[in-house]
Amino acid sequence: MATVRVVLRKKKNKAGLFPIAIRITKDRKSSYLNTGQYIEKKYWDETNRNVRKSHPNSNVLNNFITTKIAEANDKVVKSEMNSEYHSVSEIKNKIIVTKSLDFFAVAEMHLKNLKNRNKHHQYDTEFGRLKRFKEFLGKDSIPFNKLNVNVLKKFETYLLHHNKLSPRTVVNYLILIRTIFNLAISELITERGLYPFGKGKMTIRIPESQKIGFTTDEIQILENATGLTEAQQKAIHIWLVSFYFAGIRVGDVLQLKWSDFNDGRLLYRMNKNSKLVSLKIPEKAIQIFDFYKDNSSYNELVFPQLKGTNLDDTEEISKRTQSITRNLNRRLKIATKQLGIKKNISMHIARHSFGNISGEKIPIQMLQKLYRHSSVTTTIRYQANFIHKDADDALDSVVNF
């Protein structure tokens, strides 16, 4: 009877990684089947013949190994069920081992990496996108050699016409698939030659999006609003604080503590990229903060929405912030309709409004600092949505005769 075991081969590849293989032994002769998976030697547990938990994707790889061992054992049993003799090479030829993890197995790696980095909102969003991709395929797996340009173009059409998604949203789906494909290549799970993106293949073009912010007149309407419910007024307060501090994100506003304010400045670390921010507290913001300041503890939250939430649990904070933001946006829409503002509003529009009003007033390098952008190129692209003077003057110079 042939035996089947998983082993780590001794010959490493050019990247310095060792291949995980399935060894078939019969009559003291062995043959090996490569699984297509490679790891550093330090991650291999020789005693238990699996990948150590210290490997970032140990669960996925160990599940993959268990599946392949079971498949190989099944083929061995079936190949030896008749009375004919089978050599170890003949048994090997009867066993088909998948050369690599499929797309959705690597997607699980990607999702796990997001959770490990506390990117819970991104995790939820991309989990939903992968679920929709499975619905389109009608199955829970697809090998990388089948994930070609034809499949991607059909998926793009499906999202645009069947699901009625915007072109920008469809691009986000394609970017996610590309990210997972790149992860598979970097982990040596699939070959670069199978990559379906790039020139002459599936190209991803990010469509220009229209960013419309509020004007100074519209913001003054919000600042002087009366006749609103308490919940609507508090929603406007949070929106205005976001605007006053150059459009800081709602998640950061909700987590502001009184201890973040010292010597007339706001000092806080952004949740999105952990950048440290120091900004002067505008007088208008102080007036709003005075409304919430009572006998609050120095370490308590300024706004009450996240009170009772475990602030050490990033996943709980993420889920609560998403729910709170939906409620804030709903109250903002009701309030602006009552105030006679026709533009669409959401918490994120506070950031667009700062860009709209700053226009050409502030040097681009200073805007980069206020926006907390890593690259000035990002600031230039973002601000291009709100700078129209040169184009307007050029148009006037031609048509005003």
Q: What does it look like?
A:
Belongs to the 'phage' integrase family. Residues 209-400 form the Tyr recombinase domain. InterPro entries: Arm-DNA-bind_5, DNA_brk_join_enz, Integrase-like_cat_sf, Integrase_catalytic, Integrase_recombinase_N, SAM-like_dom, Tyrosine_recombinase_XerCD. By secondary structure, this protein is mainly alpha-helical. It folds into three domains: 3-94, no CATH class; 103-194, DNA polymerase, domain 1 (Orthogonal Bundle), CATH 1.10.150; 224-348, no CATH class. It has helices at residues 58-79, 88-94, 103-116, 120-137, 149-162, 167-186, 216-223, 230-244, 250-254, 283-292, 314-339, 349-358, 364-371, 376-383, 389-399; strands spanning 3-8, 18-26, 29-39, 44-45, 50-51, 261-262, 265-269, 276-280. The strands form three sheets. Strands 1-2-3 form a three-stranded antiparallel beta sheet, with helices on one face. Strands 6-7-8 form a three-stranded antiparallel beta sheet, with no helix packed on it. The chain has a two-stranded antiparallel ribbon with strand order 4-5. A hairpin with a 4-residue loop joins strand 4 (44-45) and strand 5. The termini are far apart.
Task: Describe the structure concisely for a colleague.
With 401 residues, the protein is mainly alpha-helical. The chain has 15 helices and 8 strands.
Task: Give the topology.
Layout: E1 3-8, E2 18-26, E3 29-39, E4 44-45, E5 50-51, H1 58-79, H2 88-94, H3 103-116, H4 120-137, H5 149-162, H6 167-186, H7 216-223, H8 230-244, H9 250-254, E6 261-262, E7 265-269, E8 276-280, H10 283-292, H11 314-339, H12 349-358, H13 364-371, H14 376-383, H15 389-399
Antiparallel strand pairs: 1-2, 2-3, 4-5, 6-7, 7-8
Helix pairs in contact: 3-4, 3-6, 5-6, 8-11, 8-12, 13-14
